[in-house]
Amino acid sequence: MGPEIELLRSFGVSAKRISDLLNESAVNIRKISERAQHPNPIPLEVPAPPIRQAQLKEFLLYGKKRKTFEALEWQVEEIFNEYASTYQFEEGARVLKGLLDLVSAPTNPKRVRLRARIHHLIAWFEVQQGKVKSALNHGQFSMWLSRKAYKDSWDSLDLNRYVETALIVSMAAHLSAEGQDRSESYALAILWLAEQAAEAAKNPRGSEHFRQRGSAYFHLGFEDDAKKCFLEAMQRASDKAEARDENHVQMIGSRFLNLLGKTPNWDGAQELLSKVKQTFGKHSLEYAINVNYTTAAGFLTNDSKVEQGALKLLLSNASLIDPFGRQATVSRLLSITPDLKLTPTQKSRWIKQVLRANALRNL
To answer: Which distant-in-sequence residues (6+ apart) come within 8 Å of 149 by Cβ?
Structure first.
């Protein structure tokens, strides 16, 4: 929580005060703050979008090899669906890592594509947990493999896989938050690469691209641009049938829109939380995320009565948020906000930083 602690220290909040609120020693708080002043750069080496090379031969699989390969493809997707649907991100990543040896050192583009897919799914599981370094390692390698596969296959599927993985790498860059606004600049650069590949594949960008772009603009302070992106994200989710239902569509953009402007929409945030609960259930990651965003909207109103209601909402849902590591970090930091006695401007900066807080960024 280095960036968050260092931000509070820049506001003049003492190490003793922070340590009391977080139940940590003042000495530890000072050490964390000192380290945060010299952030380590994230290991970012994103491969350029794929290009074709001359096809000298066809790469086909026959007979038993083909059946074995197709069975492994099916197994990979089944494993992902099983663990993703039950929010078992750590276990899902562990199981998929065990399959990598089955496609080690591939030369056939289809096997290269499958290895890229496995790394992609591992990166997805890792970024859900906030494990930035691991997500970047697997994600960037997956992009490189998709690029390699496309050179031989000329198949737009490899271009689309490159785009999908770029979104994971962009999210990991955002969650690194070590370099403050630099993480958002990294994310925007990666999204630009994804855009180029999507255009080459003639596949219109989906909601996640615009949601992430809007999030980057939001954290950089460009609220008008952020609003346009969030509205576009919801429209793309509807047009491309990417959402489970209309409540899901609203969740994609409205949780951010409720925070924008001089008067954050506390009522709208509460209504959205109710819709998310209806669609995903209160034990879901989606619900945990939206409890945090609803609380943030309440705190940003600077209305003491609303802030009390927001804190009550947060604390009453703490046990539901705790299983989700990164969201638990966000919740913990949000919970001390009223006791920090920040000015409205400081509180706005604090909450923006807290919403991307990630105690697992170095894993």
So the answer is: 50, 109, 110, 112, 113, 116, 155, 158, 161
